[in-house]
Specification:
Blueprint: E1 2-7, E2 12-18, E3 25-33, E4 36-43, E5 46-54, E6 60-69, E7 72-81
Antiparallel strand pairs: 1-2, 2-3, 3-4, 4-5, 5-6, 6-7
Amino acid sequence: IEIIGYDEKSKSLKSHYFEGNTGKHLEYTYQLEDNTLIVSIDVPKVKGQFNGKFNEDNSVYVGRWDWTEYGKKMGFEAKMTKLKIN
């Protein structure tokens, strides 16, 4: 389950993700500036960032996650396309 909301103290959008199989709790911070979205994670043993950009009409979003988990560098690229479903 993931709970997303505005954190008044840090003046940022945060999410708390609770993994069902392991009980792991991850906290993400979101920053949106112009067409760039940055999602950061900084919890014990997991640190990283997602940087992505929206196209002009916000229908496509392309970015990359880079993080270190338990000392191992990891990452992947992502492309998301908005679909209109009637």
